[in-house]
Task: inverse folding
């Protein structure tokens, strides 16, 4: 087994292998950063689900229906984030396999270019998939925010009774007995 390993011919060969191997490592660090963002967002969705399920216990029937709709919406967001996390993890695994194949093929001086090509290609496809799932979740979140703001505005508009138009001069701080500047009730006799 060890007979098939060949040592690199020069320091330049070793440096070249390390330089080429760093390309997948940069992708791997980017994927790790994405996974951290996905995990944070998933935690925020889980916190919202917890708060809504606690509120569901003491909610009226109408409020319960609204809470159940919001919980269904949050479930869709969590599914999108789940897909992003799985695809991101697969991208990380594929990137690591590509880097490993690069080292193994260099040490063995074997033609391992096809498996390395497929591993790195899979890493890129999984990264694109993870970013697409994240984009879907972000669009769902922004749509949910707009819907929540619109519902709150509608609730406030419904709670405020319509006001009758105010007469001219109303709200200027003058009482009916003191309409004029001298307090004479208008100044015209």
Result:
């Amino acid at each position: 087994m060890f007979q098939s390993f060949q040592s690199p011919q020069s320091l330049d060969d070793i440096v070249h292998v390390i330089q080429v191997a760093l390309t997948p490592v940069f992708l791997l660090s980017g994927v790790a950063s994405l996974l951290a963002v996905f995990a944070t967002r998933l935690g925020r969705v889980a916190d919202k689900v917890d708060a809504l399920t606690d509120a569901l216990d003491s909610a009226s029937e109408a409020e319960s229906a609204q809470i159940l709709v919001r919980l269904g919406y949050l479930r869709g967001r969590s599914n999108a984030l789940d897909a992003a996390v799985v695809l991101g993890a697969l991208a990380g695994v594929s990137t690591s396999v590509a880097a490993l194949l690069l080292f193994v093929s260099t040490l063995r001086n074997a033609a391992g270019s096809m498996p390395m090509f497929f591993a790195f290609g899979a890493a890129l496809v999984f990264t694109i998939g993870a970013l697409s799932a994240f984009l879907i979740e972000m669009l769902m979140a922004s749509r949910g925010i707009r819907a929540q703001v619109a519902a709150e505005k509608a609730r406030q508009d419904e709670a405020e009774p319509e006001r009758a138009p105010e007469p001219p001069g109303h709200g200027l701080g003058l009482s009916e007995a003191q309409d004029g500047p001298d307090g004479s009730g208008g100044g015209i006799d």
